[in-house]
Structures are given as C-alpha cells and as structure tokens.
Specification:
heterodimer; A: 113 residues; mainly beta; B: mainly beta; 4-stranded antiparallel beta sheet; 12 strands; globular
Chain lengths: 113, 116
C-alpha cells in the first residue's frame, strides 16, 4: 500500500520557471491538501480539495494553482517560480473527521535560485 | 480563526527522563481533534497521538501521552523515558470538524534534543 506519493522529491528551479508537483493517493480519500514548510516553521496550508472537482484556497495560496484531476490525484503548479517559494512541500489526504485519518506524503524539497 | 501556539522553540532532556512539550490552541468550534507529529531530520511527518475534543480520557500511545486540559485549551505532549531517537521537531496541530476547511493547522514546533 503506497499511501500518499509525491513527485519529484527534489527539484531546483530558476526564477521564472514553471513546474508541477504531483500527488497521488491510493486510499480512496475524498480530501486532499497541499502544505508548505519553511525553515523553523510549521506546515501552512496552500490549497485543499474537499472532493473531486472542488478546490479552495488555504492560508498561503498566492503564486500557486492546483488541479484535482480525479479522486486519486491533486497537483500543485508554480507558474512563475520565485525564491520565496523555496520550501518543502507536503501533500496529504484524509477520509473522515475523527481519529488519525490524515496521511502525509514524504515531502518535496524545492529550491528556486 | 483557529490557532496553535507552541512556546518552546527548543528543549533539552536527559536520556531516560520524561519531558513535556507545551501546546495551547484557540478555536470557536466545539468539535475538533488535536494531533502531535514528530519530524526527524529526514523530514517525514510521523503521527504520534490524537485526542478528540469529546474524549474524556487522555490519549496514550506507548511512551506518548497527551495531557488534555479542555478548559485551559492546552494539549501538552508527554514523552516518558526519553530515547536518543526521540531527538526531532515536534508539531502540535488541530483540525476543526464542524467549520472551515477541516484541514490541520500547525504550531511552529519544538525542537527536542535528547542528551546521553
């Protein structure tokens, strides 16, 4: 059981380049999330998707777009990368509300130079 | 808006001793869940323990226990018999269940170092 899979794990971009972080879950979860983690800080929500076909902004959405392609996949796109987007990105999925029903990917390390 | 506060940026503990990591939260929702995660230097988020707002008993998972004081809005993590492998960042998080996006909101974390 793979759980939540993120790709790529590491990426270096030049300022202004675009890229897409891919996330897929095999647990048939309705909700999926993208977070970013900056040094010395907790995770902050970028975007989330409560179900297939719906997406909503989180705490720090500027500079990002998302796409819930189907129930399994939730991608995060940087259209024009900026050094301020250098961060570790985590995808997560969830089903249900109580208990430990939230599962994280292993993280994607993105550096924008 | 929900908020999580962890006031200890760093903590030291001697091996085999117990340590308490502090967490306070703020929410207007009556139904919510509180989580603790461990993040080792390798970066993955490791779930440790969960407490529901209506749970009457404090949660325990092996060496981890959650000291839940609802009136004070605190959810401190207690690690008993610390081990060298416990050295990591620890994050407290909350998930509201009736309002908003039902996503986790995280505190800024506490870096725990276990000394031999």
């Amino acid at each position: 059981n793979a759980g939540v899979t993120q790709t790529p794990k590491f990426q270096v971009l030049k300022t202004g380049q675009s890229m897409t972080l891919q996330c897929a879950q095999d647990m048939n979860h309705n909700s999926m999330y993208w977070y970013r983690q900056d040094p010395g800080m907790g995770l902050r929500l970028i975007y989330y998707s409560a179900s297939e076909g719906t997406t909503d902004k989180g705490e720090v959405p500027n500079g990002y777009n998302v796409s819930r392609l189907n129930k399994r996949e939730f991608s995060l796109r940087l259209e024009s990368a900026a050094p301020s987007q250098t961060s570790v990105y985590f995808c997560a999925s969830a089903q249900g509300l109580s208990g430990n029903t939230i599962y994280f990917g292993e993280g994607s390390w993105l550096t924008v130079v | 808006a929900q908020k999580i506060t962890q006031t200890q940026p760093g903590m030291f503990v001697q091996e085999k001793e117990a340590v308490t990591l502090d967490c306070t939260y703020d929410t207007s929702d009556q139904s919510y869940g509180l989580f603790w995660y461990k993040q080792p230097s390798s970066g993955e988020m490791i779930f440790l323990i969960y407490q529901g707002s209506y749970d009457e008993q404090n949660a325990t998972e092996g060496r981890y226990s959650l000291n839940f004081q609802k009136a004070r809005k605190s959810a401190n993590l207690v690690i008993s018999a610390s081990q060298l492998g416990d050295s990591a960042m620890y994050f407290c998080a909350m998930r509201e269940q009736n309002t908003g996006r039902r996503a986790l909101t995280f505190g800024s974390g506490t870096r725990l170092q276990v000394q031999p």
